[in-house]
Design goal:
With about 600 residues, this protein is α+β, with helices and mostly antiparallel strands. The protein has 20 helices and twelve strands. The protein has helices at about 20-25, 60-75, 105-120, 125-145, 155-160, 165-210, 215-220, 230-245, 260-270, 270-285, 310-320, 330-345, 350-400, 415-430, 435-455, 475-480, 485-490, 560-570, 580-585, 605-610, and strands at about 40-45, 80-90, 90-100, 465, 500, 505, 510-520, 530-535, 550-555, 575, 590-595, 600. One of its GO terms (molecular function) is transferase activity, transferring phosphorus-containing groups.
Amino acid sequence: MAGDAKSFPLPSSVRKVPGTERAQEALPYYTQFTPEDDDRFWFYNSMHFPEPMHHFDLVTAEAAYCALGAFNTRVHVLPTTKGIDHRVINGRVYIGGVPVTDPNEIAMRQEKFQARAFYYYENWEELYAQWKDKMKALIADAQALPRPVLPEWEPIKTTHTGKGVASNHALLDIYRKQLEGYFRMWHHHFEFLLLGYGAYLTFFDFCKRAFPEISDQAISRMVAGMEAEIFKPDEEVKRLARRAVELGVDQHFHDDMVIEDVLGTLDQLGENGREWLSELEVSRNPWFNVNVGDGFYHYHRSWNDDLSMPFAALPGYIEKVRAGETIERPMDRLVEERDQLVADYRELLDNDEDKATYDQLIHLAHRVFPYVEGHKFYCEHWYTNLFFNKIREFGALLAEHGFFEQEEDVFHLTHYELESAIIDLMLAWSSGSEPLGPKRWPAIVQDRKQAIDLWARNTVPPALGMVPDVIDDPAIVMLWGITRDNLDSWLDTGEQNQKELKGFAACSGIVEGTARVVRSVKEIGRLEQGDILVCQVTNPTWAPIFQKISAAVSDIGGSMSHMAIVAREYDLPAVVGTGSATSRIQDGQRIRVDGGRGLVTILDEEELLENA
């Protein structure tokens, strides 16, 4: 740390929101800030956790950082960085990297990294195919877990077959298998991810040295035009729109439709209606197993659980199909532009050695990069949604026995507390007495519901602690967009033009329009045609709304963040990593987005008159 460096508020200075003290203290001790944490740098991970976290949902951070750190620190052995520590205050997840600064340790780790990571790079396609098989098997295992039940009487076959295990034991077995599968999934998640970022970052650094004037966006466009599973759900919605027009049932899809009514009407309509419904089922399994969020909140339900998102997109897509407009991603143009950029910059290199290195690095980036987005479909979406739905089954069982009112209340318990409640129920069933949970949990659940509401109204700083001199973690730089320059700009807000916000140039294009500040997925429905989306972060499953918006701006994110990647794949002008767009831009204001320069301008009345 620089001795006279500027600092964000220290963790010890952040006070618990009044009325939420008990909810804060109930979090695991290892997620609480300690006095020693004042000496470190932390930033609010609003990319993955943009809303206050329910107590159970925090398992998503715990499992993810267990796996990320393991692969950074001890599996692939990244040379300059280890894992990520996390702390939770007022429902918000702050994270801090663990850098490696000793040159001798870096050299030792570099040697190990080359022996391990290069094996993956050399055998990427084969290992990635194995990875998909592993994920599909893990999903099948989770789907096969039985629903937890407690019969009044043990089935007689338990005694007649010599089974020797009563039904209450199954509760603990099912729950622990759910948790084990979820933690295992995150290890699969990070098996390739940091290597994908590392390959791109190596190419990025080479380009910055070889072409001093090159923009970040030009480098990122050299890996655009990818095919990845996470884009498939939106492609399926487009396919359904085309089929609706082809089958002559398109008139039933409009902005005011009631989904259940439409499904019922099509079922009664005749052969064409039923054929469209069968096409819907083809799309739903597996492609609608995507959450409306990024997979870290239990209430970000999948499209299969709630068809609102895909059905909201159908009228717009259908209208474009009727008009003969293309609704596909501009893949041919993206690939053509990508290949031309790669060729043009290669010609600028002076010698064969640099050209050979350039060819090797861009070839590797093209091979590995589809995983950076493709894995999300299997991990954060399909598996995580399945996991949360399995936890709901325990919520229903506990609600049935009076532990709380609704099955969703289960998510106000930590995963440790949920196991204790399950054991409480197991004990009561076995002894024939009443469980103690119904006297304990309702008041706690109510207290934590209030805490979530209070935390949601509370504004949190984007970072805490001293600003580091150097940030070498490829995930922190590429995914979150946390660089020293960015942090300095966040700190210097008082010295900046208050009508301008700077961030990463995610996708070029200049657009003026009405800002629609969306702070959660629940507010997506507020977007109107031509709006500019201003949010903390977005993800590929929001793609169906991109037909409505004209540009996008985010608080968090780097050049390889999911929002930046999606914006480029859909050719949507975007600026990411502004740090404070959702707090500095008011809903309904007119703004200008310059995606090529990474600049967002809040237009004042005089500018509005000039443009009128």
